[in-house]
User: Fold this.
Amino acid sequence: MSKKRRNHSAAFKASVAIEAIKGEQTLSELAARFGIHPTQIQQWKRQLMEGSKDVFGASEKERKQTASEVKNLHAKIGQLTMERDFLSQALGR
Assistant:
C-alpha cells in the first residue's frame, strides 16, 4: 500500500525557506525539525530566492506587457464574436 503524499501550504513552505535562508540551523536540522527531506527544503529555498525579485517590482515591465497582451486578446475575441454572429445570421440559424 502506498503512502499518501503530503501537501504543504504556501505559508509553511515560506517559513521553512526563510529558516533555511537565515542559516541558523543546517538543512539536516531543519529537516528533522519540520519532518521534511533536506532536498525539499533546498528547492523551496531556491524558489523563494528566485521569486523574491517580483516582490520588489522587478516584474513591472512584465505586468505592462501582460496587460497589453490581454487587451489585444480581448479585441480578438470581440472580432471573432462579431464574425460568428454575422455568419450565423447569414446562414439563417
The chain has four helices and no strands. The two ends are 57 Å apart (CA to CA). The mean pLDDT is 89.
